[in-house]
Amino acid sequence: SLDWRLDALLWCGLPPLLAIAVCFQAPVELLRSIPAAASKRSAQKSESSGMSGSEISGAIKLATCFLACGCGSYGLSYSAGKLSENLYTNSVLLNGADILGYVAVLGADVLGRKAFQSSSFFLAAVCLLFCAVLQPGWNLIACAMVGRICLNVCFTTIYVALATVFPESSQKNVLPLCQITARVGGILAPMSGTLPAAVSCPAFGSLCMLAVVATLTLPERIGEEA
């Protein structure tokens, strides 16, 4: 009887070779073309996954906006107990501000995404910075609510920016970066619950002001001037 190695080679190795010889007129040329095709495919994949300098710069700017929204919006929720003595009323009002923010974003078409987003970030920054001089009470709650409304507007428009500013080939790289920075903001947000509103709210406002600069310098589409 045949050795098992030779038997396995005949049964497993010979049929594929015969199939190649029958199906292709030039099997040698086919085998020679496989490495070249593989290297070409690898080069195309590397080229498509790479990001240009303008795309990287735009991704950092958009990630800054995600950080401001994540830290500011979630931070206000954790700071609800510092706005006034009634935690439950504060929470209800802040959640009501969320609804108003998602309704207000419907007006983005009037000014355009970039102008609407930068204006919302700026108004949020002004209101949250102004909280530094207010005592806990209705005035502080009102400023925090306006800031929360504007942050919810921006939380919607930044996702629109992700889809419109960047080409499809780079969106898969930009989205994880932006989501990570938003989660970093969410990690920092609980710490605001241990600070007075006069300290935490201005910190959120400073991030919003930084997001204003990032929004204004981010082009409408990558490759076009801001």
TrEMBL record:
Subcellular location, principal: membrane
Transmembrane segment boundaries: 56-76, 88-108, 120-142, 149-166, 197-218
InterPro entries per the UniProt record, alphabetical: MFS_trans_sf
Subcellular location(s) per record: Membrane
Gene3D superfamilies assigned: MFS general substrate transporter like domains
GO cellular component: membrane
Membrane topology label: Multi-pass membrane protein
Keyword Transmembrane tagged: yes
SUPFAM superfamilies given in the database record: MFS general substrate transporter (SSF103473)
Sorted UniProt keywords: Membrane, Transmembrane, Transmembrane helix
Protein name as it appears in the record: SLC22A5 protein
Lineage, highest ranks first: Eukaryota, Sar, Alveolata, Dinophyceae, Suessiales
Gene: SLC22A5
